[in-house]
Amino acid sequence: MSEIQEKPAETAPLSPDEPRYLLNVAQGDMSGVQTGDVNGDVNYYGNSKAKPETELRARYASPEEVLDAQELFVTPGGFASARAALQANNAVVLCGKGTGRTHAARRLLTYESGLTTFVYLNRARPLDHLQPDELDEGTAYLLDLGGTNDRPITDWAFEQGLNVMRQARCLLVVLLDHREQTPVTAARHSYTLEAPPPVEVAQAALRRLEDVDEAMLQVVKADLAPALEGASPDKAVFAARLAVEVHKNQLTVTEALDKLQEEATDAVAHWFEKLDVRGHAYSFAVALLENHPYEHVLSRGWILDERIRAAALPIDKNLRPRGVLEQPKIKLLHDIAAATEIRKHPTIVGQTEETIRFQRQDWATAVFTYMWQQYPAAREILRNWMCDDTSEEARDAVTRAIYAIVTTVPAREPLALVEHLASQTAVGRRTIAVATLVRLTENARMRGPAEQAMHQWVEDGYAYPLWTVARVYSTPAPHRPPHAVLDMFTKIGKSKKYTPQNAVVAGVLPLLLDESTQQVALDTVVSWTSPKYRRTGLPRVAIGLALWVIGFYKQSRALSVVLNAQHPNAVQILLDHVLNDDMFGPYVLRRMADRAKTATWDDDDATELVWFAQLVSPELGWWRRRAAVRRLCRRYPYMRSAIRRIFRVARRVQPS
User: Fold this and answer.
1) Conformational region of residue 43, where left means phi above 0, alpha means psi within -120 to 50, and beta covers everything else
2) pLDDT for 409
3) Most buried of the four, 66, 286, 359, 420, by CB within 10 Å?
4) CA 199: distance to chain centroid?
5) Which of 59, 82, 620, 533 is nearest to 290 (CA)?
6) What long-range pairs does 609-613 form, CB within 8 A, spacing at least 24?
7) Which residues, 6+ apart, have CB-to-CB distance to 57 below 8 Å?
8) Closest among 36, 28, 107, 100 to 464, alpha carbons compared
9) Which helix (H) or strand (E) holds 340?
10) 402 Cβ neighbours under 8 A, 6+ residues apart
11) Are the beta carbons of 446 and 440 closer than 8 angstroms?
12) What's phi and psi for 438, nearest 5 deg?
């Protein structure tokens, strides 16, 4: 059964803890359309001050990674063409899982380019949000988008990112799983690599050792080679470690072959047999936050360990704290098969940081799917712990983890976890649900179940799942045409809950700004003012969008000019819809009355006043504006003097 708890019927005025709808204006720099969500994070659509961008740098390359690029590298197929493209265009896209694309990218950005390090870009930072002044001139950057579906980069984002990289004379390598994910604008920069011979990779890894001899190399070439056929470079490096253990008589050849042929999930299961609660907790933390700062992962693992142990205690017992000197770092790393790496600090010059990862590259996904499947009683603890960290980078990691759980762990209701997050009051948790659903709908196998679930949530009519669906449909997707998006927005907007209404406003705005969807979006918004929808929430949604269409917000003035020139009838319908509303009509008029008081000496207020007055009456002469002023005065007789002053002052300050 679903994990969602019982919620009030749609006839209830508000969902649990949902804030009552307020007029979408605040004093100062924050006029706009508010999302209505104040539990947790707060989102604004409008003239709010932009929040700081997500950190550009995720981390610097470690010295070991740079050394690997020089000494451990075996050339994969297609590498020469990729190198030429990078040198000619400042950017290249490498594709192909298990082909050594990460090793190839490190080689391209260091040894082949004459550089000593490179920067991993933050996955949560879109390429079109890069600024030339935040890039270090002549630096190399790596954006790893492995594990994503469909097209994680738009054509516009790639073009913008490439232009910024060229301006700063930087290099960019993007990693994708499949070439089909490449943006059209990056097609000539995209190359699918072919994995290098795995035996050669394993032998190259052995040659880095100080005490390597021919016998050790022979173990790989003769004994382990059959198990390496078609293996990835990461598996070949693992084979080199096994060869060392065989050579030192710590393993037999048979045992080494068994380990090499063992799937990651089986290897994790065998390893976990030796772990205690602490080992399970820290392994799960590393799996979720691999390559994150060591102290952060350690802190999160400590919290998870405490929660798991506390859940096992009788209700009348207190948790016994762990000894602070109970286990040294070196033992912890050995127990969970992890390693740390020292890197340059991403933001502080001259400082270093320590990151943590598993020794085997394929363990992370196997660890958290294993724990989720094997310990169902701990799922609530694991779920809540994962969602505690609301930072952008952590959300990306949690999204990938939940996606892996949904798509790999057997379940009768695989989307129950996503449904639970979609119904939460905290925006951060719903945002994770949105990101997961976007990825699931890009997966051909999961698209049907995900779409079916979202349609069911819309039928159920609860506020927070409706908000989640609206945000999913606000994300551009090639499999979802504009008319289907607007049909869904129409269904969601019928709700009288303010949270989903505001999400619909935010979703329709980009469609109004896009010339290819502007006509159909505007027609849809106009249709929402129809009397047949008067008992639904759509008229209120139409008001939120109409304020943008009529140029009520300063930053929407350019859009309003275009729409008024091309679709004057639609703009007039939406203007009348706003002015006839009992809440927004008086507010807009009071706002214009305030502008009329200062328009004589304030050019900005004069411009806004004239703009509004000409929307109501294109001709501001007394005789020509007379009918429009009379209509407004009949609608709001208690504001007659203010209405007349608005048009009188607008005529006076109108440019000749």
Assistant:
1) beta
2) 92
3) 286
4) 38
5) 59
6) 609/646, 609/649, 609/650, 609/653, 610/650, 610/653, 610/654, 610/655, 611/551, 611/557, 611/560, 612/550, 612/551, 612/588, 612/646, 612/650, 613/646, 613/647, 613/650, 613/651
7) 119, 120, 121, 122, 346, 347
8) 36
9) strand 338-344
10) 386, 417, 418, 421, 432, 436
11) yes
12) -60, -45
Measured CA to CA, the distance from residue 608 to residue 602 in angstroms comes to: 10
Question: Hey, what are 27's tokens?
Answer: 């004093």
Q: What is the largest CA-CA distance in the chain?
A: 103
The length of the chain, given as a count of residues: 656
* Cβ atoms of 635 and 579 closer than 8 Å: yes
pLDDT score recorded for residue 43:
38
Identity at 323, one-letter amino acid code: G
Going through 378-515 in order, the beta strands assigned E by DSSP cover none
Number of H helices, E strands in the chain: 29, 10
> Which segments in the chain show pLDDT lower than 70?
1-53, 149-150
Distance between CA 372 and CA 377 in Å, rounded?
Answer: 9
Which residues, listed in sequence order, are joined to residue 91 by a DSSP beta bridge?
172
- The answer to whether 193 and 101 have CB atoms below 8 angstroms apart is yes
* Gap between the Cα atoms of 87 and 79, Å rounded: 12
In tens, the pLDDT along 556-613 reads: 888 999 999 999 999 999 999 999 999 999 999 999 999 999 999 999 999 999 999 9
- What confidence score (pLDDT) does residue 53 get? 60
* Burial tier of 600 (Cβ tally within 10 Å: 0-12, 13-18, 19+): exposed
Query: CA 646 to CA 586: how far, in whole Å?
Result: 13
Give the residue carrying structure tokens 């085997």: 360
Pairing of strands 140-144, 171-176: parallel
The DSSP code sequence of 434-453 is HHHHHHHHTSHHHHHHHHHH
- Burial class of residue 51, CB neighbours in 10 A (0-12, 13-18, 19+): exposed
Q: Among positive and negative, which fits the CA dihedral 358, 362, 364, 369? A: negative
